[in-house]
Amino acid sequence: MHRTGGFTIIELIVAIAVLAILLTIGVPSIQQLIKNNRVTAQTNELVSVINFARNESIRRNQSVDMDLISNASGWSAEVRSPDGAEDSEGCTVGVLRCADYNGVLLPSGTDSFAFNNRGYVDGFTQVDIVLQHTDCSGDRQRREITILPTGQVSSTDAACVE
Fold this sequence. Notes:
This protein is α+β, with helices and mostly antiparallel strands. The longest helix has 52 residues, at 9-60. It has a single domain, classed as minor pseudopilin epsh fold (3-Layer(bab) Sandwich), CATH 3.55.40.10. It has one helix at residues 9-60; strands at 64-70, 74-80, 95-102, 104-105, 112-115, 127-133, 142-147, 153-158.
């Protein structure tokens, strides 16, 4: 007897079952990866904005203010110069740099701080900022950013907090 090409119904059922198992395992992993990458990208951008503020304070030899504004869907950051200098990035007058992000919250309560003309945090105090995904469920969806009194910025991964 000669067998014709093609799949039997058993082979088709096994292939569909294997595909279903792979999708069940793979889709949640991809969703976690996307959340982790969103928090990482926004953390890196915020660290960049903080470093920009510090560098501007040194370059201008004057205090530069950093404002973090948290809202229901995310957060935004503004770097302002007390002299009211205008910037070309499309920010409001007096804002040197601005950023606006959704999907990640700032639950820490830190809303503003400043760097003096030497790049140190005004008041020589440590500033702690927390970024957390709005639907935080993994161990890499929360970042803690620390600004030392000397102006040095670092970030670390942290577990989600309700």
